[in-house]
Amino acid sequence: MTRDKLYELLEKKVLITDGATGSFLQKAGMPTGVCPEQWILENPDVLIGLQKEYVKAGSDIIYAPTFTSNRIKLDEFGLADQTVRMNQELVALSKQAAEGKAYVAADMTMTGKSLKPLGELSLEELIDVYKEQAAALVEAGVDMFVVETMMSLAEARAAVIAIKETCCLPVIVSMSFEEDGKTLYGTSPACAAVVLGSIGADVVGVNCSTGPKEMIQIVKEMKEYASIPIIAKPNAGLPELEDGKTVYKMKPEEFVSYIPELIQTGANLLGGCCGTDPDFIEKIKETAKQFTPVSWKEEKIPCLASERKIQPIDLNGPFLLIGERMNPTGKKALQAELREGSLKLLLSMAEEQEEKGAKILDLNVGMNGIDEKETMLKAIEELGLTTSLPLCIDTSHVSIMEAALRAYPGRALINSVSLEKEKIEKALPIMKKYGAMFIILPLSDEGLPKNAEEKKQIIKTIMEKAAKLDIPKNHMIVDGLVATVGAQPEAALETLETIRYCKEELKLPSMAGLSNISFGLPDRMKINGAFLAMAMERGMTLAIANPNSQMLLDAMYASALLLHKPGSDLDYIKHCQSQTVPVLKAAETSTKMESKKEGQTADKGNVSLESEVFKSVVSGDRAGILEEVKKELERGTKPGSIINDQLIPGINKVGELFDKKMYFLPQLISSAEAMKKAIEYLEPMLSVDSKQEMAVVVIATVEGDVHDIGKNLVTLMFKNYGYRVIDLGKNVPKEDIVDTAVKENAAIIALSALMTTTMMEMKHVIEYKKEKGCPAKVIIGGAVTTQSFADEIGADGYSEDAAAAVKLVERLLK
What we know:
Layout: H1 3-12, E1 15-16, H2 22-27, H3 36-42, H4 44-57, E2 61-63, H5 71-75, H6 83-98, E3 103-108, H7 123-140, E4 144-150, H8 153-164, E5 171-175, H9 189-199, E6 203-208, H10 212-225, E7 230-234, E8 239-242, E9 245-248, H11 252-256, H12 259-265, E10 267-270, H13 278-288, E11 303-305, E12 310-312, E13 320-323, H14 332-339, H15 344-355, E14 360-363, H16 372-386, E15 391-394, H17 398-407, E16 413-418, H18 421-434, E17 437-441, H19 452-468, E18 476-479, H20 491-506, E19 510-511, H21 524-538, E20 542-545, H22 550-562, H23 568-578, H24 580-597, H25 604-610, H26 612-619, H27 625-634, H28 639-659, H29 665-682, E21 696-701, H30 709-720, E22 724-727, H31 734-743, E23 748-752, H32 761-771, E24 777-781, H33 787-793, E25 797-798, H34 802-813
Parallel strand pairs: 1-10, 2-3, 3-4, 4-5, 5-6, 6-7, 7-10, 13-14, 13-20, 14-15, 15-16, 16-17, 17-18, 18-19, 21-22, 21-23, 23-24, 24-25
Antiparallel strand pairs: 8-9, 11-12
Helix pairs in contact: 3-4, 4-6, 4-13, 6-7, 7-8, 8-9, 9-10, 10-12, 15-16, 16-17, 17-18, 19-20, 20-21, 21-22, 22-23, 25-28, 26-27, 26-28, 26-29, 28-29, 29-30, 30-34, 31-32
């Protein structure tokens, strides 16, 4: 199967995949806690029978049962060395069931281990794990790949890279979204569509997550930005408990009532996930036959993206500012920090520029005395936890461009690609491989262009070379290449003509580095502001500049308003209103100083909110928090006071931001890790009297469930609040959980489950706890659990996230 063949099929009809597998296997006798793939190989007739039913019902594609057959997952059952054999034998079973009447897709998913900096797994280690599985599946003769139920966009990208570097088969990627319409890591459907489409996925979409009704909105959001087909595999509604079992009560008739809207919204492939069976697939097939597939080929507005946010680059859209400050050139303090291996100033620059209105952040770490590639990769890693803005990778080294594009978990902009032989021959294939947008710099081996006409010719030549590699025109932005008017009086006019040419003739967005125009002249900001207004009128779409320049921002917002740019009226008003903030802050500071002069005591809560320790927790500054803690100690602040008045309020603030969906899992983990570092440093300094005897919490993922990302975060949060936590890990039998709670005199048992097939184990733990007379209170959490489920099984409480878990335990212990 090729991409072209798959697309040819999708142009003719909506393709139908299969339905649920795991729940059917359990009904057929597969015990909880066993390796599913091993059980299938020991009971092959069960799987073959199910998949034959799916083919008979109308599945065009069935998924081989290789979902968790990667080395990391199999190692949990001592089967890592059997990875290749098991994958190939499992594919053989599906091919036997398909009998040539359906395509067989290799099925892959997350490994259960997190990438750095949230976990210990490096990107290349993860890619190698996926490559091993992909190579075995290709050898087994699969027709295509499906990477499904993904929560981490970075891990989904790694899987696509691994598959694309292994074979040329089509790759389908589907994400799993929470009730708020974002993944656990904060990725929106639009963001997933942009990033996965750019890295080389042939189909993007959603599975599991929700029922068919709720999935319509997710597909709609993806369709707005996806330039590839979309897959939708909903659950049969939401899970409910019935007679102690997890069931999906939605009937096939209700399920398929939403199929017409899913197709009309943009779903090109359909199937079912949890709770669906061959009867659902048969009815989906019959319904889908009545509809013509929606095309995915219309041109979309090009977008950059971080892991959490997209930024459209619209020729006729809002004017965009690229923040230029993360560049060591001329910045001695930043140079000194980078040489010491510190990114604190760089990260603060990112936050400040985002606050000031930058929409993209230029990242340049080129300087002597450091390893530029290593620093670039480290900065990309940390910036993902600091800012949601997309990055513009600014380097003159093609090898660093490639390393950065491989590591960046979004879609970056590359600054830049010129016609210089060394650059053009090596850089363009890299832009193609990683689907990056890039800035065309009209330079050649002969140096700077003599005039606008030469600039135009260089731009056209680069575009022609890109077209030969099938790089779409909408991947490109043109740098107007600003020279100083002090040396070249016609420099501004030449650049303005280049901008006009890009907008009116090439239909390409353009940008410029504004500060060059005024180099060597007095009152430079006046010239920069005037030039910006003129360039915007000619059609310039973006500018690289310093967002801290008030005069420049004034010119930008006023020009956008006068040019009637989308949203410019409200943007201008907000900008003007924001100018009052510094005045208010100055007045507030003055009032506090007057209060102190009069001998008044400052409010303790306000002091904690102003402290750098508090800010380090909120920003997740793991690298700098100990320095701030040491400064507090030098000022005479007691260790216990730092914990109670600064660290705990900080993590409480993070919890509030998480509740409001302003923070997501990466920021929550980063902040918790920063706080943990501080507490570990302060703990030995606490006097015996000041150390509170905190309750014991036993925490575990229930038997049969091997997911522990959420459980690990809850563990970290409990420890930060001083609880003595005994983490039993994942796939833990009820006997081990309760016996440990009795032995350790635990006040709380915290249980986690991520699968509908394992959530009932929570009830078994509660029943066994009562049987043993264990007085500990039980709280539950995990993606599939709810408050009503907690009430039904007799749990003492339910928490939807780590921050809420801490509050719940505090309440229960009172």
